[in-house]
Design brief:
7 strands, about 325 residues, three-stranded antiparallel β-sheet, elongated, two-stranded antiparallel ribbon, mainly alpha, single chain, about 10% strand
Amino acid sequence: METRTSSYPDSLRAPAWLFTLRLPSRGRGLRAVGGARAGAGHWAGRRPASRTAACGRVAPPAAMSAAFRKAAKSGQRPHRERAQPAARRKLGLLEKKKDYRLRADDYRKKQSALRALQRAALDRNPDEFYFRMTRARLQDGVHIIKQPKDEVTPEQVKVMRTQDLKYVEMKRVAEAKKIERLKSELHLLDAEGKQSNKHVFFFDTKKEVQEFDIATHLNTVPELVDRVYNRPTIATLQKESLKGATDPAHLKKLAQQRKNQYDLLKQRIEREKTMFVIAQKIQTRKDLLDKTQKVKVKKETTNGPAIYKFKFQRKR
């Protein structure tokens, strides 16, 4: 790298101790080295049009040359990728290198997976016990895995996929209110079937137990002994006259209506139970979206959701 100074007359030339210019051999610009004033080297790195700029000639502005370069690029032909030839247009877009890479990587992954499966099949011992044998059976020389029982009924799947938790809960509450209203209208809920409660009679001797007659003890007729909701005494039956329908055809019609009401009540109870199970399963699936560590305690069934035990986290 050579060092030069300005060629002005001695009367106009600045003293040599003020600054010195170092000119690169390949015209990379000017760099001020040394100097008594602060900022003497701030104009380093400028690119003059030629070396004569250091000798007093004015160089064209750098911004103007940059503008010309940008304007020249506007006339360049835009880059276009080669398209599919017209004869092969039916095959779709022309495959580029990046498309080939994706296809090749996918092919290599599949081939490596197949090789791993073939290696595992060759290394497998036919006499060794595997736990899958407990839930598989051999049919026509082919092992068939036993399918587990459905944990969710098709009706539950349809409701869980199409309805929201709030809607299911609203329908369940509506069914519960209808059940309560039917129960209040039907007073013969305990007419059929064995009663859970018992009426105990106490006696002093075994002879009294053997001679005990419940109809005589309750002072009623034997036909009304099983009626715990309305059991009139003999005196009441003698004093009062029968009220209501006594025609056999009309009584049969009333009995059929009462049976229909009980069937409707049974259906509503089953529907309310189904809605309750569906709501629990939807809530369980929402809870599983939490990233908290969890362990399954009980599997899911048609009558109840799966039970998970979540790791305890201290709430701040």
